[in-house]
Amino acid sequence: MQIRLFVDAPLALGATVPLTVEQIHYLRDVLRVQTGTELFVFDGKNGEFAAVLSSLSKRDGRMQICRLLRKQPEKRDVRLYFSPLKRDCTEWVVEKATELGATQIVPVITQYTSTKRVNTDRLRLISIEACEQCRRLDVPEISEPVALKELLVAQNDTKPLLVHLDETGRGKKADEIFKGIDAAAFLVGPEGGFSETERALIAETPHTTGMDLGERILRAETAAVSALALFVCR
Ligand code: SAM
């Protein structure tokens, strides 16, 4: 198994990088690796490097950065605005959205949002683990929750097209919406859907369109990953 680690500091060839307490525990107590082991490391900005574990004890661990493996790819703009769900579902959405390439994940509080407390620090950890696992080199930004109204007020033509996932059947199909765009922001409603007032506000918002994902009413988490998969796998 190739070990991949995210390092929250700029990486450069020749540098010696200290391991965090969590990384020391993972390498020493979980994987039981020895010094000299090759690791793949990335910092979210400067590509992926091969590194050698140069020391590892209970309290201290270091690795030396040896060679560049992959350059940092150009960053895309694929956003997921979703209403927080029960804890496990929210975490699942963040993990899958990371695997599918979402670059910004924003919890949005709507009228029918039932879970308003969101542990963004934990979501960031989940997202980093997903990047390590899926070989992704950039780490999505996980924002603090915002109110739907605030999000809509900030929307304009300079932002990616806001694609409102609309279960009423009034939205357009994915291939029509995605023609000619390489950035998008998907807005998914809570389990109870958007209220009529919110639907009216979304309809008045510039640079927005509704998207239909078929005749069945999907769980919010299914809708979120389906929309992202359709967009990134075109
Ligand atoms: N209010 C709905 C109801 O109870 O009939 C259910 C809302 S659905 C569980 C949660 C969210 O997933 C919706 O607000 C919408 O954003 C998205 N969604 C679900 N099914 C969809 C579909 N077929 N097409 C587009 N979006 C969908």
**Largest β-sheet summary:** 7 strands, parallel
Note the gap between the termini. 30 Å
User: What is the overall shape?
Assistant: elongated
Query: Any idea of the CATH topology of the largest domain?
Result: Alpha/beta knot
- What's the CATH architecture of the largest domain? 3-Layer(aba) Sandwich
Give the rounded overall mean pLDDT.
97
Q: Which small molecules are bound?
A: S-adenosylmethionine
Order of helices and strands: EEHEEEEHEHEEHEHEHEH
Helix content: 25-40%
User: Approximately what portion of the residues adopt beta-strand conformation?
Assistant: 25-35%
- What's the helix count? 7
Total number of domains:
2
CATH superfamily of the largest domain: SPOUT methyltransferase, trefoil knot domain
Number of strands: 12
* SS content category: alpha/beta
Backbone CA Rg:
20 Å
Question: Regarding CATH, which class of the largest domain?
Answer: Alpha Beta
Keywords:
234 residues, alpha/beta, Ribosomal Protein L25, Chain P, five-stranded mixed beta sheet, 7 helices, 30% helix, binds S-adenosylmethionine
